[in-house]
């Protein structure tokens, strides 16, 4: 499903994330690590946001050689999402749904599932941290991606939203969609049958 070779991403601070070789098969994979271990760096690279050295291939599509095609296969929700204050969630949905070719019925279903209908037309500047997180998660499920990356998806949202998110993930898993998840807090570990658990320590990946 996902192959990473000779990956390297360095920062001026001196921190470097390096992965010589990693192959993840179809399924749901957990990436563990303390803050600053490189989880978000890895996720942003796979999502096509951060430049890097090396190669990332998903379903036979190379991010370096076919960046547009690759990005259509991957959806990503950040741990601490930020959006332009003057936009609304409806504006963001309109933009992302065009790029991801999401249907109106899918949009309506996700808005209901995440409970955002009451504020989707309001500007982002009025959103709480929980509302922002729900917005980011909703966008990550638009379209028909092959891989959905969720960075700390269960933080800042309430218990009901967590359960709704679990249900959405289960539904997508049943349809063959793959997941990369990082989380310090999973509502119920038994809800997940992880295909693999990877541990990041100081920019180095350890397969468990």
From TrEMBL:
SUPFAM superfamilies: P-loop containing nucleoside triphosphate hydrolases (SSF52540)
Presence of keyword Transport: yes
Residues covered by the ABC transporter domain: 2-205
Keyword vocabulary terms for this entry: ATP-binding, Nucleotide-binding, Transport
InterPro entries documented for this protein: AAA+_ATPase (IPR003593), ABC_transporter-like_ATP-bd (IPR003439), ABC_transporter-like_CS (IPR017871), ABC_Transporter_VariousFunc (IPR051782), P-loop_NTPase (IPR027417)
Record's protein name: ABC transporter
Top-level lineage group: Bacteria
